[in-house]
Amino acid sequence: MKITLVRHTEVDEKYHKKYNGHIDIGLSRRGIEQAEALAALLKDELFDLVYASDLLRSRQTLAPFIQAKNAIFIEELREKFWGRHEGKSFDEIITEGEIKYENFEQWIEALDGEPYEAYMKRVQHFFLEYLPKQNANTVLVITHAGVIRVLMAIVKDLSLEEAFCIDVPYASATVFDTDLQTFSTIK
To answer: Which sequence positions are flagged as catalytic?
Structure first.
């Protein structure tokens, strides 16, 4: 199976470099343009299935795609829920003084919200258990950077810190070949 993973396009600048999680934010003007460009890039692709996170930024990214009419919007493709830390930057959280950064894994576990283990299991279940049971050879998935990085960590056996150093910019498209267990960027 070939899964085309698309990170939603750019959101409003005030949400850049923040733990946005489940905040239902929309796209910036640039994000709308990026979505249109992605739709044009993938217009000739025939996908057996189309899935997207049910959050507004993913829905708006998918809107200009001709493949959008058959999309399935699901919570399982949402970013991690950060609880009371949602909408805050690293610096804002540090300034609050409740959490001190010691190392990446400690930091991730210290933040409020969905436990990281549960988040990883959610991503693993969708991509490695649920999708393979579907009758599909090609799948389009519009989701979030964290979901893509967690999938890469699981497949490539990377630490979370290594995976979160992988650049997954807004509007990026990556193909995950489940047979070869490889990731390749679409340009």
So the answer is: 8, 79
